[in-house]
Design goal:
Layout lengths: L8 E4 L6 E2 L1 H14 L7 H4 L7 H13 L5 H18 L5 E2 L3 H10 L4 E4 L4 H10 L8 E3 L12 H10 L6 E5 L2 H10 L3 E4 L16 E3 L5 H5 L2
Parallel strand pairs: 1-4, 1-6, 4-5, 6-7, 7-8
Antiparallel strand pairs: 2-3
Helix pairs in contact: 1-4, 3-4
Length: 225
């Protein structure tokens, strides 16, 4: 069955879709927690908290570490610590998932415009893409600071549609979490759910993306390109 007969552009989530960023994020979260005299969470736990942006990430970490809902002042202080530590771990603690660089190159060869749509704080995104050697594939980057409402709200995808001048059915969004799928569905865009990401420990198929894929190399054939 041809699911993507009208595709004219692609948008990608970042963490858990293109890059395995959990080690770097976990190092930063644990450093922030230990700076506050709290226990470290470890990469296994932190990977289940990724996807809603840094504020919610650190709030989840604090809730786990303290056993209660943290006060806003503590969240603010911990977020500052998180950003400080993440600046030193974001590149060394991130790597591309298998097949991503080759897959992006093949998609670029088809002449499709591509965008990044991530809840990651915007200042970290472009340097990370450059360090991984994939920055040139993307003509548009939308980070967590570039929209009032982050995914799962459709606002970031509406922004992509406007920038690229597309109808909803012409943009395919590729992600790994329910936030990505919900955002695409709310925007009216077809979407691909990758099984190798984080997604809070849940199967991505539960969110009913248009297509579920197990490997990034499966994307090009699935798009029918």
């Amino acid at each position: 069955m041809a699911h993507f007969t009208k595709v004219r552009a692609l948008a990608f989530d970042l963490d858990g879709t293109l890059i395995d960023s959990a080690p770097g994020l976990a190092s930063a979260v644990d450093a922030a927690l230990t700076s506050l005299g709290l226990p470290a969470a470890g990469v296994g736990r932190v990977s289940t908290w990724i996807g809603n942006g840094a504020d919610i990430l650190i709030e989840r970490a604090l809730t786990w570490a303290t056993g209660q809902k943290p006060e806003s002042d503590l969240i603010r202080d911990a977020r500052v610590l998180l950003d400080t530590h993440y600046a030193t771990t974001v590149e060394s603690g991130s790597k591309l998932f298998p097949g991503v660089k080759e897959g992006l190159a093949a998609l670029a060869a088809k002449g499709l415009p591509m965008a990044i749509v991530t809840n990651k704080p915007t200042p970290f995104v472009a340097p990370l893409l450059a360090s991984l050697g994939i920055a040139d594939y993307f003509s548009l980057i939308i980070g967590g600071d570039d929209v009032v409402a982050k995914k799962p709200h459709p606002a970031p995808l509406f922004l992509v549609l406007g920038k690229f001048g597309l109808l909803q059915e012409e943009l395919v969004f590729v992600g790994d979490s329910r936030n990505d799928i919900l955002a695409a569905q709310a925007a009216g865009c077809p979407c691909v759910g990758m099984t190798f990401g984080y997604n809070y420990g849940e199967p991505i198929a539960t969110s009913q993306p248009t297509v579920v894929l197990d490997h990034f190399n499966d994307l090009l054939p699935a798009l029918g390109l």
